[in-house]
Design goal:
homodimer, Multidrug-efflux Transporter Regulator, Chain: A, Domain 2, two-stranded antiparallel sheet, 3% strand, elongated, DNA-binding, DNA-bd_dom_put_sf (chains A, B), MerR family transcriptional regulator (chains A, B)
Chain lengths: 128, 128
DNA sequence: CTCCAACCTGGAGCGCGCTCCAGGTCAAGC
DNA sequence: GCTTGACCTGGAGCGCGCTCCAGGTTGGAG
Protein backbone atom coordinates (compact mmCIF):
# COMPACT_ATOMS: atom_id res chain seq x y z
CA UNK A 1 0.00 0.00 0.00
CA UNK A 2 2.38 2.64 1.27
CA UNK A 3 5.85 3.47 0.04
CA UNK A 4 6.41 4.81 -3.44
CA UNK A 5 9.66 5.46 -5.22
CA UNK A 6 10.13 9.02 -6.46
CA UNK A 7 9.41 8.09 -10.06
CA UNK A 8 6.22 6.36 -9.00
CA UNK A 9 5.14 9.34 -6.91
CA UNK A 10 5.84 11.58 -9.89
CA UNK A 11 3.79 9.37 -12.18
CA UNK A 12 0.88 9.22 -9.76
CA UNK A 13 0.85 12.88 -8.86
CA UNK A 14 1.64 14.30 -12.25
CA UNK A 15 4.41 16.44 -10.78
CA UNK A 16 7.95 16.12 -12.07
CA UNK A 17 10.70 14.67 -9.90
CA UNK A 18 12.27 18.09 -9.73
CA UNK A 19 9.01 19.60 -8.60
CA UNK A 20 8.60 16.99 -5.88
CA UNK A 21 12.08 17.75 -4.60
CA UNK A 22 11.39 21.46 -4.90
CA UNK A 23 8.16 21.16 -2.92
CA UNK A 24 10.00 19.38 -0.17
CA UNK A 25 12.88 21.83 -0.24
CA UNK A 26 10.65 24.84 0.27
CA UNK A 27 8.74 23.11 3.04
CA UNK A 28 5.51 22.60 1.18
CA UNK A 29 5.66 18.86 1.41
CA UNK A 30 6.77 17.88 4.91
CA UNK A 31 10.02 15.98 5.22
CA UNK A 32 9.58 12.86 3.15
CA UNK A 33 10.73 9.53 4.54
CA UNK A 34 14.03 8.12 3.36
CA UNK A 35 15.66 4.74 2.95
CA UNK A 36 18.83 4.04 4.89
CA UNK A 37 20.72 5.27 1.86
CA UNK A 38 18.85 8.56 1.77
CA UNK A 39 16.45 7.95 -1.12
CA UNK A 40 12.93 9.26 -0.79
CA UNK A 41 9.97 7.03 -0.06
CA UNK A 42 6.60 8.69 -0.57
CA UNK A 43 3.63 7.55 1.48
CA UNK A 44 -0.06 7.54 0.60
CA UNK A 45 -0.27 10.52 2.88
CA UNK A 46 2.28 12.40 0.80
CA UNK A 47 0.32 11.46 -2.30
CA UNK A 48 -2.81 12.85 -0.68
CA UNK A 49 -1.05 16.13 -0.10
CA UNK A 50 0.12 16.20 -3.67
CA UNK A 51 -3.44 15.76 -4.89
CA UNK A 52 -4.44 18.70 -2.74
CA UNK A 53 -1.53 20.79 -4.00
CA UNK A 54 -2.54 20.05 -7.55
CA UNK A 55 -6.05 21.18 -6.80
CA UNK A 56 -4.87 24.39 -5.21
CA UNK A 57 -2.28 25.04 -7.86
CA UNK A 58 -4.73 24.44 -10.70
CA UNK A 59 -7.06 26.92 -9.11
CA UNK A 60 -4.31 29.51 -8.94
CA UNK A 61 -3.27 29.52 -5.30
CA UNK A 62 0.25 30.91 -4.88
CA UNK A 63 2.78 28.56 -3.36
CA UNK A 64 3.28 30.82 -0.35
CA UNK A 65 -0.35 30.31 0.60
CA UNK A 66 -0.17 26.56 0.09
CA UNK A 67 2.83 26.57 2.39
CA UNK A 68 0.85 28.45 4.97
CA UNK A 69 -1.96 25.95 4.75
CA UNK A 70 0.41 23.02 5.03
CA UNK A 71 2.12 24.60 8.01
CA UNK A 72 -1.20 25.14 9.76
CA UNK A 73 -2.10 21.51 9.19
CA UNK A 74 1.21 20.46 10.75
CA UNK A 75 0.56 22.76 13.68
CA UNK A 76 -2.37 20.59 14.73
CA UNK A 77 -6.07 20.45 15.31
CA UNK A 78 -6.40 23.92 16.79
CA UNK A 79 -5.78 25.47 13.39
CA UNK A 80 -8.77 23.95 11.64
CA UNK A 81 -10.74 27.17 11.77
CA UNK A 82 -7.98 29.11 10.13
CA UNK A 83 -7.50 26.44 7.48
CA UNK A 84 -11.20 26.42 6.79
CA UNK A 85 -11.19 30.16 6.40
CA UNK A 86 -8.19 30.05 4.12
CA UNK A 87 -9.89 27.58 1.82
CA UNK A 88 -13.13 29.54 1.83
CA UNK A 89 -11.35 32.72 0.85
CA UNK A 90 -9.60 30.85 -1.87
CA UNK A 91 -12.85 29.34 -3.11
CA UNK A 92 -14.31 32.83 -3.36
CA UNK A 93 -11.37 33.92 -5.47
CA UNK A 94 -11.81 30.88 -7.67
CA UNK A 95 -15.45 31.75 -8.17
CA UNK A 96 -14.45 35.23 -9.29
CA UNK A 97 -11.85 33.71 -11.57
CA UNK A 98 -14.48 31.43 -13.10
CA UNK A 99 -16.82 34.33 -13.71
CA UNK A 100 -14.06 36.33 -15.41
CA UNK A 101 -13.03 33.37 -17.50
CA UNK A 102 -16.61 32.79 -18.59
CA UNK A 103 -17.07 36.45 -19.46
CA UNK A 104 -13.91 36.59 -21.53
CA UNK A 105 -14.76 33.29 -23.15
CA UNK A 106 -18.05 34.81 -24.22
CA UNK A 107 -16.18 37.76 -25.73
CA UNK A 108 -13.93 35.36 -27.54
CA UNK A 109 -16.90 33.46 -28.93
CA UNK A 110 -18.42 36.71 -30.09
CA UNK A 111 -15.22 37.56 -31.89
CA UNK A 112 -15.21 34.16 -33.53
CA UNK A 113 -18.82 34.62 -34.60
CA UNK A 114 -17.73 37.80 -36.29
CA UNK A 115 -15.19 35.86 -38.33
CA UNK A 116 -17.90 33.42 -39.29
CA UNK A 117 -19.86 36.24 -40.82
CA UNK A 118 -22.89 35.66 -38.65
CA UNK A 119 -24.26 39.00 -37.54
CA UNK A 120 -25.07 38.97 -33.84
CA UNK A 121 -22.60 41.78 -33.26
CA UNK A 122 -21.37 44.87 -34.94
CA UNK A 123 -17.65 44.49 -35.59
CA UNK A 124 -17.05 47.30 -33.13
CA UNK A 125 -13.71 49.01 -33.20
CA UNK A 126 -11.50 47.20 -35.61
CA UNK A 127 -9.17 44.91 -33.81
CA UNK A 128 -8.35 42.06 -36.07
CA UNK B 1 -13.51 60.85 -30.07
CA UNK B 2 -10.06 59.64 -30.92
CA UNK B 3 -6.76 60.54 -29.30
CA UNK B 4 -6.00 59.53 -25.75
CA UNK B 5 -3.01 60.42 -23.62
CA UNK B 6 -1.08 57.47 -22.23
CA UNK B 7 -2.52 57.85 -18.77
CA UNK B 8 -6.03 57.92 -20.21
CA UNK B 9 -5.36 54.83 -22.31
CA UNK B 10 -4.02 53.10 -19.22
CA UNK B 11 -7.09 54.07 -17.25
CA UNK B 12 -9.46 52.87 -19.94
CA UNK B 13 -7.68 49.64 -20.74
CA UNK B 14 -6.69 48.67 -17.26
CA UNK B 15 -3.10 48.10 -18.36
CA UNK B 16 -0.28 50.02 -16.71
CA UNK B 17 1.68 52.65 -18.63
CA UNK B 18 4.68 50.37 -18.54
CA UNK B 19 2.65 47.54 -19.97
CA UNK B 20 1.34 49.72 -22.80
CA UNK B 21 4.90 50.72 -23.68
CA UNK B 22 6.01 47.13 -23.37
CA UNK B 23 3.23 45.91 -25.68
CA UNK B 24 4.30 48.43 -28.28
CA UNK B 25 7.98 47.64 -27.84
CA UNK B 26 7.49 43.94 -28.50
CA UNK B 27 5.30 44.63 -31.50
CA UNK B 28 2.02 43.50 -29.99
CA UNK B 29 0.42 46.88 -30.28
CA UNK B 30 1.28 48.36 -33.69
CA UNK B 31 3.28 51.59 -33.69
CA UNK B 32 1.23 54.07 -31.76
CA UNK B 33 0.82 57.60 -33.11
CA UNK B 34 2.93 60.35 -31.63
CA UNK B 35 2.72 64.08 -31.12
CA UNK B 36 5.39 66.24 -32.75
CA UNK B 37 7.33 65.92 -29.51
CA UNK B 38 7.21 62.14 -29.51
CA UNK B 39 4.51 61.50 -26.91
CA UNK B 40 2.05 58.72 -27.60
CA UNK B 41 -1.51 59.32 -28.68
CA UNK B 42 -3.73 56.27 -28.48
CA UNK B 43 -6.66 55.93 -30.85
CA UNK B 44 -10.00 54.17 -30.39
CA UNK B 45 -8.55 51.50 -32.59
CA UNK B 46 -5.64 50.99 -30.20
CA UNK B 47 -8.11 50.81 -27.36
CA UNK B 48 -10.05 48.15 -29.27
CA UNK B 49 -6.90 46.09 -29.57
CA UNK B 50 -6.21 46.49 -25.89
CA UNK B 51 -9.67 45.17 -25.07
CA UNK B 52 -8.93 42.16 -27.23
CA UNK B 53 -5.53 41.66 -25.61
CA UNK B 54 -7.14 41.72 -22.21
CA UNK B 55 -9.62 39.10 -23.30
CA UNK B 56 -6.89 36.86 -24.67
CA UNK B 57 -4.59 37.44 -21.74
CA UNK B 58 -7.33 36.75 -19.18
CA UNK B 59 -8.04 33.49 -20.94
CA UNK B 60 -4.38 32.52 -20.77
CA UNK B 61 -3.09 33.09 -24.26
CA UNK B 62 0.69 33.55 -24.28
CA UNK B 63 1.97 36.86 -25.59
CA UNK B 64 3.79 35.17 -28.49
CA UNK B 65 0.46 33.95 -29.80
CA UNK B 66 -1.19 37.32 -29.38
CA UNK B 67 1.68 38.78 -31.36
CA UNK B 68 1.11 36.26 -34.07
CA UNK B 69 -2.57 37.14 -34.22
CA UNK B 70 -1.84 40.85 -34.34
CA UNK B 71 0.72 40.33 -37.08
CA UNK B 72 -1.75 38.35 -39.14
CA UNK B 73 -4.31 41.12 -38.79
CA UNK B 74 -1.74 43.62 -40.01
CA UNK B 75 -0.92 41.37 -42.93
CA UNK B 76 -4.37 41.93 -44.34
CA UNK B 77 -7.64 40.33 -45.31
CA UNK B 78 -6.15 37.16 -46.70
CA UNK B 79 -5.21 35.99 -43.20
CA UNK B 80 -8.74 35.88 -41.83
CA UNK B 81 -8.94 32.11 -42.10
CA UNK B 82 -5.79 31.65 -40.12
CA UNK B 83 -6.89 34.17 -37.51
CA UNK B 84 -10.22 32.42 -37.21
CA UNK B 85 -8.49 29.12 -36.74
CA UNK B 86 -6.15 30.56 -34.14
CA UNK B 87 -9.06 31.89 -32.10
CA UNK B 88 -10.96 28.63 -32.40
CA UNK B 89 -8.01 26.63 -31.16
CA UNK B 90 -7.65 29.03 -28.30
CA UNK B 91 -11.34 28.80 -27.47
CA UNK B 92 -10.99 25.02 -27.28
CA UNK B 93 -8.12 25.38 -24.84
CA UNK B 94 -10.17 27.80 -22.78
CA UNK B 95 -13.01 25.30 -22.64
CA UNK B 96 -10.63 22.68 -21.33
CA UNK B 97 -9.31 25.19 -18.83
CA UNK B 98 -12.84 25.92 -17.66
CA UNK B 99 -13.59 22.22 -17.22
CA UNK B 100 -10.42 21.72 -15.20
CA UNK B 101 -11.13 24.77 -13.07
CA UNK B 102 -14.66 23.56 -12.39
CA UNK B 103 -13.42 20.10 -11.48
CA UNK B 104 -10.81 21.41 -9.08
CA UNK B 105 -13.28 23.88 -7.65
CA UNK B 106 -15.57 20.94 -6.88
CA UNK B 107 -12.69 19.19 -5.12
CA UNK B 108 -12.04 22.32 -3.14
CA UNK B 109 -15.69 22.58 -2.12
CA UNK B 110 -15.61 18.96 -1.04
CA UNK B 111 -12.60 19.66 1.11
CA UNK B 112 -14.37 22.63 2.64
CA UNK B 113 -17.44 20.50 3.33
CA UNK B 114 -15.15 18.16 5.22
CA UNK B 115 -14.06 21.03 7.47
CA UNK B 116 -17.68 21.88 8.06
CA UNK B 117 -18.25 18.45 9.51
CA UNK B 118 -20.94 17.56 7.05
CA UNK B 119 -20.46 14.02 5.88
CA UNK B 120 -20.81 13.69 2.12
CA UNK B 121 -17.27 12.44 1.87
CA UNK B 122 -14.90 10.24 3.71
CA UNK B 123 -11.91 12.31 4.75
CA UNK B 124 -9.79 10.19 2.43
CA UNK B 125 -6.08 10.25 2.90
CA UNK B 126 -5.26 12.82 5.47
CA UNK B 127 -4.07 15.98 3.87
CA UNK B 128 -4.85 18.82 6.13
C1' DC C 1 8.28 82.59 -19.56
C1' DT C 2 8.35 79.30 -15.99
C1' DC C 3 7.08 75.43 -13.78
C1' DC C 4 6.15 70.72 -13.03
C1' DA C 5 3.59 66.73 -13.86
C1' DA C 6 3.37 63.69 -17.38
C1' DC C 7 5.89 61.73 -20.67
C1' DC C 8 10.12 59.70 -23.21
C1' DT C 9 14.16 55.99 -23.85
C1' DG C 10 17.10 51.88 -23.17
C1' DG C 11 18.09 48.68 -20.27
C1' DA C 12 18.31 46.35 -15.78
C1' DG C 13 15.67 43.83 -12.36
C1' DC C 14 12.05 41.08 -10.37
C1' DG C 15 8.78 37.38 -8.77
C1' DC C 16 7.13 33.14 -9.72
C1' DG C 17 7.52 28.37 -10.31
C1' DC C 18 9.93 25.52 -11.68
C1' DT C 19 14.00 23.13 -14.50
C1' DC C 20 18.51 21.85 -15.36
C1' DC C 21 23.18 20.70 -14.23
C1' DA C 22 27.47 18.57 -12.35
C1' DG C 23 29.27 15.47 -9.75
C1' DG C 24 28.47 11.91 -6.79
C1' DT C 25 25.60 7.76 -4.36
C1' DC C 26 22.37 3.84 -4.12
C1' DA C 27 20.36 -0.56 -5.06
C1' DA C 28 18.18 -4.14 -8.02
C1' DG C 29 19.34 -7.54 -11.54
C1' DC C 30 22.65 -10.46 -13.61
C1' DG D 1 30.90 -8.31 -7.44
C1' DC D 2 29.62 -5.36 -11.22
C1' DT D 3 26.83 -2.79 -13.89
C1' DT D 4 23.48 0.57 -14.74
C1' DG D 5 19.71 3.34 -14.16
C1' DA D 6 17.38 5.70 -10.70
C1' DC D 7 18.39 8.66 -7.25
C1' DC D 8 20.91 12.30 -4.30
C1' DT D 9 22.59 17.48 -3.33
C1' DG D 10 23.34 22.49 -3.79
C1' DG D 11 23.02 25.89 -6.64
C1' DA D 12 22.60 28.17 -11.13
C1' DG D 13 19.50 29.26 -14.88
C1' DC D 14 15.25 30.00 -17.32
C1' DG D 15 10.81 31.79 -19.37
C1' DC D 16 7.25 34.69 -18.74
C1' DG D 17 5.28 39.06 -18.23
C1' DC D 18 5.89 42.67 -16.68
C1' DT D 19 8.03 46.61 -13.51
C1' DC D 20 11.29 49.86 -12.21
C1' DC D 21 14.96 53.07 -12.88
C1' DA D 22 17.93 57.03 -14.32
C1' DG D 23 18.34 60.71 -16.81
C1' DG D 24 16.32 63.59 -20.05
C1' DT D 25 12.11 65.96 -22.81
C1' DT D 26 7.42 67.81 -23.47
C1' DG D 27 3.61 70.67 -23.04
C1' DG D 28 -0.40 72.72 -20.74
C1' DA D 29 -1.55 75.80 -16.68
C1' DG D 30 -0.64 80.07 -14.45
Amino acid sequence: MSGYAPSEAARRSGFSLDTLRYYEKIGLLADVERTAGGQRVFTDDDLGWLVLFRCLRDTGMPIAQMRRYAQLARDGEHTTDERHELLCHHAARVEEQMRLLQRQYDHLREKIRFYEGLPGTAPGSEAG
